[in-house]
């Protein structure tokens, strides 16, 4: 009788154990799902914690910097912005978005080959309105996923009434996503992350004092870029013609954590003054972080312009980055 009772207890215990395991297993996917929805991860191009639902592809947009296009829309939300000379002494921006999605971006301007090359370094969907003959061939070849205003003017791209062409082409992020879906482009793959300092290390960098930086792209001050370090915010602000670079809609300033200047050979390639810029050979660089400057060398790694010091890749301060590409370092000045 005692043996029968013992067997009964063992069987009952086993049944309860199996039931408990089964319950836990059935609940596990729900717990995992909850964890996925609330996960915090560092954005790959800023190193800043952000709540994201899933990895997303970078989007690179060519943005107008003519005085008639200022202030622009979307620049403050770009993870990385390249400033590069186009024809003459006019600069344009290539703004790379990944961690944020501006409602509106623009004015959008036409493509050049070096903008395409830079966008490819982040496997970005490339957005422009127009193109040079060389850029047109590259885009038509299908080597980079792209959406262009020449084919979508008045549909995906809208003309603002408060500005005149060619300084009035805008695109919303929703229309970028719609255009990508219509074209069958995959937007799910996030770019390879950059290498960032921890906040503690970033606060103890050493170098030459550089709270003011000036880049004179020409003798005309229209396209002179100036950066000032705000010690309280621990960010750089940017300005042109003594006007701070802000958002058109809300005057929100562009605030930067890394300002990088690289020297690259520029040559004029046609009668209209279009340029060819050597973004492959490497060269001299200045890296401005936390109000100080460090001299460096830049290298092109799979399309990305990255600074090196003493043969080692430099880390980035978590946050936003602006990269100025200049024909010679003599146009750059800095100090306290």
UniProtKB/TrEMBL annotation:
Domain DUF3048 residues, every copy: 45-185, 213-323
Signal peptide: 1-20
InterPro entries: DUF3048_C (IPR035328), DUF3048_N (IPR021416), YerB-like_sf (IPR023158)
Keywords: Signal
Domain of life: Bacteria
Chain intervals for the UniProt region annotation (Disordered): 27-47
Name of the protein in question: DUF3048 domain-containing protein
């Amino acid at each position: 009788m005692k043996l029968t009772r013992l067997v009964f207890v063992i069987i009952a215990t086993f049944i309860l154990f199996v039931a408990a395991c089964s319950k836990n297993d059935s609940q596990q996917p729900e717990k995992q799902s909850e964890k996925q929805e609330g996960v915090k991860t560092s954005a790959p191009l800023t190193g800043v914690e952000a709540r994201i639902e899933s990895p997303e592809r970078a989007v690179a947009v060519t943005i107008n910097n003519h005085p008639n296009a200022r202030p622009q829309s979307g620049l403050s939300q770009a993870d990385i912005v390249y400033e590069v000379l186009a024809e003459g002494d006019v600069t344009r921006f290539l703004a790379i978005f990944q961690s944020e999605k501006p409602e509106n971006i623009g004015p959008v301007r036409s493509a050049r080959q070096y903008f395409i090359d830079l966008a490819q370094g982040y496997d970005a969907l490339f957005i422009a309105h127009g193109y040079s003959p060389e850029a047109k061939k590259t885009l038509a070849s299908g080597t980079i996923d792209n959406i262009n205003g020449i084919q979508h003017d008045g549909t995906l791209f809208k003309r603002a009434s408060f500005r005149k062409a060619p300084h009035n082409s805008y695109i919303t992020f929703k229309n970028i996503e719609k255009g990508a879906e219509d074209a069958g482009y995959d937007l799910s793959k996030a770019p390879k992350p950059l290498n960032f300092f921890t906040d503690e290390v970033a606060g103890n960098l050493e170098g030459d004092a550089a709270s003011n930086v000036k880049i004179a792209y020409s003798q005309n001050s229209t396209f002179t870029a100036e950066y000032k370090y705000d010690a309280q915010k621990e960010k750089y602000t940017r300005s042109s013609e003594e006007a701070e670079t802000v958002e058109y809609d809300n005057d929100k300033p562009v605030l930067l954590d890394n300002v990088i200047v690289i020297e690259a050979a520029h040559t004029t390639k046609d009668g209209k003054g279009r340029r060819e810029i050597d973004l492959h050979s490497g060269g001299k660089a200045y890296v401005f972080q936390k109000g100080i400057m460090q001299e460096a060398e830049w290298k092109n790694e799979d399309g990305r312009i990255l600074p090196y010091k003493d043969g080692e890749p430099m880390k980035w301060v978590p946050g936003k980055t602006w990269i100025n590409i200049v024909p010679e370092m003599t146009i750059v000045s800095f100090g306290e």
